[in-house]
Design brief:
CATH architecture of the largest domain: 3-Layer(aba) Sandwich
Strand content: 15-25%
Strand order of the largest sheet: 3-2-1-4-5-6-7
Number of strands: 13
Number of domains: 2
Radius of gyration: 21 Å
CATH class of the largest domain: Alpha Beta
Structural class: alpha/beta
Amino acid sequence: MLRVGIDAWGISGDLLHSGFGQYTALLLRHLPATGPGLELVAYGGPQEPRPVWLPEGVEWRALGSGARPRWAALESRLRRLPAAARADRLDLFHSPAVHVRPSYPPVARPGIPVVATVHDLIPLSFYGSDLPLRLRVFYRWNLRRALTSDAVVTVSEAARAEIVSGGRAAGVRRMTVIPNGVEFEPNPDPEPLRRLGVEAPYLLFAGSYEPRKDLAGALATFEILAGRGFGHQLVAVVERSSGHAAALRRRIETSGLANRVRLVHSLTEPDLRALYARADLLLFPSQAEGFGYPALQAAACGVPVVASDLPALRETMDGAAELAPPGDPAAFAAAAERVLRDPGLRDRLAAAGRKRARLFGVARCVGAHRELYEALVKGR
């Protein structure tokens, strides 16, 4: 019997809606279905309730901490996790993200083999010196812990190339590219849209207030399209709160289009799928990505995608999206206008997107993780 611990800090709450939250949830939901001989233990934060969606067979530990909330994650994972791993008789531990904030868990070192997933190097490659010093110091320390783990998983060849080209692969013992699995069927129910105040036709933005996701660019694109006579709403899926939210809300209020912009957050999965299903297209102007979940989620729903021309998105979409230079609202507007005015192009993108999304199957993703776990424990 192989017993695997997975860090699941925060996924009972809003972190479930983040990229690493979706990745972690997918593993916890589907690894049990890969066959007998595997037992999972998911480790949440102090007093964190068991997620309602967690399969019955997955054990849940709300790993406590005696530290103040600001330091709870560090104390929980650095001091308490090793003893918990021994008590739970774990063979291996998986840290599914490299966090940039010390209020989230560091990559674990519980005295057993560790798999660490490095989704991207965006805190260094995109934000760099714009990050506060304390976050840069923590992230560099945490990244080094990840890259010197027993095995590193990354989610695209583009992310792998970034790690290698940055000269950070020297201490890596084993690095495996396992593309994310996409589990995202459209929800045809119109009720969530009525409840959210969303009216067709609308364009969808899915990301966050974080600068690299470029909601400001999506707003600028929307303004150009509105000026050309398109009567759509812009629906933006963002997080519940952010230090960047106030500036973007002011930007919306002064745009003259505030009555046509809807900001939504903390959606249930059925509501999110319903929102994707009826969008005329997805605007995805992100300026840095390691994989790009929203683009493939839209593709799985048959929704055309206009996305940034980035290495990771060229890889994941592979011709199934219209691409535009990141940071160029005029180019995004031109690409979106082509899609909106050309039914044939929309149909081709929808068909290509569905086909592309099917290649990112859940069984393939979780099966590759299980193979890695078993090989690592057996010393292969």
